[in-house]
TrEMBL record, chains A, B:
<keyword id="KW-0812">Transmembrane</keyword>
<dbReference type="InterPro" id="IPR045122">
    <property type="entry name" value="Csc1-like"/>
</dbReference>
<dbReference type="InterPro" id="IPR027815">
    <property type="entry name" value="CSC1/OSCA1-like_cyt"/>
</dbReference>
<dbReference type="Pfam" id="PF14703">
    <property type="entry name" value="PHM7_cyt"/>
</dbReference>
<feature type="transmembrane region" description="Helical">
    <location>
        <begin position="6"/>
        <end position="27"/>
    </location>
</feature>
<feature type="domain" description="CSC1/OSCA1-like cytosolic">
    <location>
        <begin position="189"/>
        <end position="238"/>
    </location>
</feature>
<protein>
    <recommendedName>
        <fullName>CSC1-like protein</fullName>
    </recommendedName>
</protein>
<keyword id="KW-0472">Membrane</keyword>
<dbReference type="Pfam" id="PF13967">
    <property type="entry name" value="RSN1_TM"/>
</dbReference>
<feature type="transmembrane region" description="Helical">
    <location>
        <begin position="147"/>
        <end position="166"/>
    </location>
</feature>
<dbReference type="GO" id="GO:0005227">
    <property type="term" value="F:calcium-activated cation channel activity"/>
</dbReference>
<dbReference type="InterPro" id="IPR003864">
    <property type="entry name" value="CSC1/OSCA1-like_7TM"/>
</dbReference>
<keyword id="KW-0407">Ion channel</keyword>
<feature type="transmembrane region" description="Helical">
    <location>
        <begin position="422"/>
        <end position="442"/>
    </location>
</feature>
<feature type="transmembrane region" description="Helical">
    <location>
        <begin position="387"/>
        <end position="410"/>
    </location>
</feature>
<dbReference type="Pfam" id="PF02714">
    <property type="entry name" value="RSN1_7TM"/>
</dbReference>
<feature type="transmembrane region" description="Helical">
    <location>
        <begin position="563"/>
        <end position="580"/>
    </location>
</feature>
Length: 651, 651
């Protein structure tokens, strides 16, 4: 790809961003669009539909940027919960990483690459006609001593990322514990889900539960709610699952951690989700059905991965103009026009990819929802993981190795050649990924601000809606946005020493994300559940993977460039990274699974002298209300929450 | 290999067995050898050293066989504990499997194989000159309808093994629970090991422990014993680990299951072993040292596996006479003698293999002991697993694929070709493994009875020993014997439809083992610890692996023999086997890890009215006595238990 193609792509996207920002700055002030741009404020009543017209409304103003910038972490925490704080910390974490990597990349590695002598010298008279490759490591000749600069950069950045990862895991762990300590008594802290309750002919499920828990948890058992579900054929049915509440958090934790019955498949307990986070269809499916579903989901994921290669191959063809002319000869005349060819190679490929990618998060959420999770937050977490690995595999590896599943499989089956093949293939795709950051990153973030799809949706449905219809405040689709942030992190980490030119574009992306998402948390999104930071370990794992991948590429590159001492000296890095990860798993992971006896007992003791606890326990008894037993109106509302596509309001 | 070579091997081993049995029947009656053959009875005082000589002592008598045969499961349980019962059930399980497989194999598959037309017809006039291959599946021509007999046999035997595995897992689970219910209060049921106790400058470790557990387990905490170890440099040291005892089993279980501290790396709890089962050196090594040890052990296992291929390759050469003649041309004249060549091909290879194999269990136990386990039983279990997989890899796969590590690795890296390669290689080694069963199985079992090595050891050391020296009763080395039984199970399962001739020899082996081990449990071995059946899951896993391996071979064979429909129809079997295994893991595995709340509370309640509990609690306080603080004499005795080689009394 030539510099000019990149500049074209940059121009188009910069234009789009400016357009979206301007339009947003105007439209957000129009009462007609309040439901799109400030639904949260509208529902909370802090924003009233202004009817008086004034000229100021038509002039774009950047006031919202200042407001978003000034928001403190405490305000964000009280506004949108710990998950939003963790989300913003993913962005600040990436900003820190790429600021340091960026300084090293632009001021040290880039000059070294540019003054290399492997490729043609940079033609400063016709700058835009230079190949982007002269800015990459490809421009350094084999055996050159300059490669030790790259080697040092790999070490410095790796150590810096270790430090940041450790610091961040520690910080979020402490936030999680602090959040628990400062939380009011909540039903899910005192409750466990019990499944596979043995059905006996002599007594009802409710009686069995009471007998069992009064027998084995006499001092802490409080109450229970048997789950009922409606069935089209048989009406209301008698399901052997229940929410069992305890008088203390420690009591609930004990019931959850210990195997209850002699038969481990009976009286299976797990932590209860928040009442509004319960995914009720979970209870309808039997054990066997959930098992089959899991198999189906695995097969579906594999199929999706294979089918997705088709658009990727097509996109690959576009970046390679000459091949496209062979495939579609009638395009030859059009493609000779410079601008067209620049759009085709610089912009179109990543746009097409991006459109296909849009469909992945909702599909993955659908798959996760049939897999058998008891809560929406678990579904979201599982979908987040699926989307992340799908993206890494199908965007990174499929693009890098341009091709067929069989070829990719042959790579897995030949592990010792992976570094060498990565070393050849990864730098070759540097320009594609730089364009990808600009297209997919910049545009998706600013269209997140402009809320293009909800805007269109609102314009279409508004005429049909009555004013009485309740406004639904959207939730941020973590399973779409966290994998995206992580994937850009992976691109940055793997490319920073190969093609440091990617770093300024990434920094712009994360800066945009920083402002825009803070603004969206204030105006648009409302938290639907609180996992108290359980998304962080996913990001941590993806960073560890990125580091190890980067080390593999470095080993390959240094071997290819015949600096074998450097490639040998890189070897300790992936091993130390994995050991570091192992340490973090031991040190922090358990905090994200369950609270410790120490915290639970401390919190329980605090409550002992609290007069409001009686009222809380009174409410707790009916907290896990069964939607099937609620009045129709309410039931319908709750049912809409069960749709797995609820969060994907913006496709 | 010819029938005659097998007959030679059979003759030699049969002779050895008869010799060992006869010698045993005589020597066991000589008071001089009581310490070798009935050490257990001697120590228990049920057998007195008879001095009066009579002629009967010199005549071999089979009375011990009747005694061993008549021993009931309840007697064995009270005599040697649940582990011995489980050990005998592994043998009876194998007997049941190979009885059914044997009937099908000998009466259905063998005639089908013999009447095949792929190889030369059996020459009945000179029977011993036939190749053993005519009895195997190799004799069936491609595309033959007869292969459906093998196909059906695979299905029938697989389903029968599923049923038996399920039944056995269920039976042993119930035995384990019954054992727990019937057990007297034991110190380890009420105790947890606490490690990584944060050290503070203001208070001693003992005070910290008391403060912590009185704070968070006020109603159940009983007492604690801080672990002290002697150090050559610094004398007695203050280690941050302790045994903490509770007033109830449920209290101890709660402390073990829940993460105690906010920091998951502090106050780490695990189940306490029985007091005499504690592996004290565990406490001396630091967390970091244990981590490094683990890495070292992994590397050592890999090295051992690679080095072990040298004898295997040598043995391979022996079974292939012509190759041996190329290697060592001067042997040509000797090898032309029929008997010599028969010994070399039929007997020598597996004898050499067996000798090398003898060294593996002690080495693996040594490796396990430095890996960081708190008890001897855990070390034994880990060593058992290591020896099992080492045997499967280095005997089965190395023999089958006759060769280099690289070749084996290339197989792993090319999974879709595994069935095809197995199909070619496995039947080719049938005759070797038949000989292996006879040599390694028969001879090792009868030498187990004869106790060859302890006998020699006793003869050498007896003149130097004073009569005051206490007699040490040996323990059965589970980590040597369970992998052997499992490996013969694997051979039987994988070969039953390929070369059913292996089955009668296996049946004889298991019958011998049945009588001999019962006899040894009565007379020789004394249990040193009680895992209450925790070895069974290892055997279960190895059986599942054997089944899946057999299915892979079947797929390969049917593809090779061009009955592709059969190979397609085999496919559901491995999948169903893995699902079956998954179900067993859910249904039974948790029972082997910890007891359920239900059992613990029931048992605790029984004790409430027991008057002897006060005395028990009084003893419990000092149960975990520190060997470093004991009088020298006792300390030495206990130290000898720590030697990882203690069980390998018979090399």
């Amino acid at each position: 790809m030539l510099v000019s193609a990149l500049l074209t792509s940059l121009g188009i996207n910069f234009g789009l961003c400016v357009l979206f920002f301007t339009l947003y700055s105007i439209l957000r002030k129009q009462p007609f669009y309040y439901d799109v741009y400030v639904p949260r404020l509208l529902v909370e009543g802090t924003s009233k539909r202004r009817s008086r017209f004034n000229l100021e409304r038509l002039i774009p103003s950047p006031g919202w940027v200042r407001k978003a910038w000034k928001l403190s972490e405490e305000e964000l925490l009280s506004l949108s919960g710990l998950d939003a704080v963790v989300y913003m910390r993913i962005i600040t974490f990436s900003l820190k990483v790429f600021l340091v990597a960026g300084i090293i990349g632009i001021f040290v590695i880039l000059p070294v690459n540019c003054t290399g002598d492997q490729l043609e010298d940079i033609d400063f008279s016709d700058f835009s006609n230079n190949s982007l490759d002269v800015f990459t490591i490809s421009n350094i000749s084999s055996g050159s001593k300059r490669l030790w600069v790259h080697f040092s950069a790999v070490y410095v950045v790796t150590i810096f990322i270790w430090y940041l990862l450790y610091y961040e895991y520690k910080y979020i762990s402490s936030k999680r514990i602090a959040y628990f300590y400062s939380s009011k008594p909540q039903p899910h802290q005192f409750t466990v889900v019990v499944r596979s309750i043995p059905v006996s002919v002599r007594s009802s499920i409710s009686d069995s539960i009471e007998t069992f828990f009064k027998e084995y948890h006499p001092s802490t058992y409080l109450s229970h709610t048997v789950v009922h579900r409606t069935n089209k054929l048989r009406g209301l049915i008698e399901i052997p699952a229940a929410f069992v509440s305890f008088k203390t958090r420690y009591g609930a934790a004990t019931a959850f951690h210990l195997q209850q019955s002699i038969n481990p498949t009976h009286w299976v307990t797990e932590q209860a989700p928040e009442p509004h986070d319960v995914y009720w269809p979970f209870f309808t499916s039997t054990f066997f059905r959930r098992w089959i579903s899991k198999l189906v989901v695995i097969v579906a994921c594999i199929l999706l991965t294979i089918l997705f290669l088709l658009p990727v191959i097509f996109v690959q063809g576009l970046t390679n103009l000459s091949q496209l002319e062979v495939w579609l000869p009638f395009l030859e005349s059009i493609l000779t026009i410079t601008f067209v060819s620049e759009v085709v190679t610089g912009y179109l490929p990543s746009l097409i990819l991006q459109l296909f990618l849009k469909a992945v998060p909702p599909i993955m959420e659908l798959l996760s929802s049939i897999q058998g999770y008891v809560s929406h937050s678990d579904i979201e977490k599982s979908a987040c993981n699926k989307v992340l690995w799908f993206t890494i595999w199908n965007i990174f590896f499929a693009t890098v190795f341009s091709g067929s599943v069989l070829y990719q499989l042959s790579l897995i089956l030949d592990p010792k050649n992976i570094p060498a093949r990565l070393a050849v293939a990864v730098p070759a795709q540097a320009s594609f990924f730089i364009a990808y950051v600009v297209t997919s990153g910049w545009t998706s973030t600013s269209s997140e601000l402009f809320r293009l799809i909800p805007l269109i949706g609102s314009l279409i449905t508004k005429p049909c809606k009555s004013t009485d219809d309740e406004l639904v405040v959207p939730t941020i689709p973590f399973h779409r946005d966290i994998p995206r942030l992580s994937f850009f992190g992976l691109l940055g980490i793997t490319y920073f020493f190969l093609a440091p030119l990617i770093l300024p574009f990434l920094l712009v992306y994360f800066c945009l994300a920083y402002i825009i998402y803070r603004n969206q948390f204030i105006n648009v999104y409302e938290p639907k559940f609180e996992t108290a930071g359980k998304f962080w370990p996913i990001v941590h794992n993806s960073m560890i993977f990125s580091l190890v991948l980067m080390h593999c590429i470095a080993v390959g590159i240094f071997t290819l460039k015949k600096v074998s001492l450097a490639s040998t000296l890189i070897f300790p890095l992936p091993i130390l990274t994995l050991l570091f990860n192992e340490y973090c798993r031991k040190r922090f992971r358990p905090i994200f699974i369950a609270y410790s006896a120490e915290s639970l007992i401390k919190k329980d003791r605090e409550d002992q002298n609290d007069a409001t606890m009686d009222e809380f326990f009174h409410k707790l008894v009916t907290a896990y209300q069964d939607p099937a037993l609620m009045p129709i109106q309410f039931s319908t509302n709750t049912d809409s929450l069960h749709s797995p596509l609820i969060y994907s309001d913006e496709v």
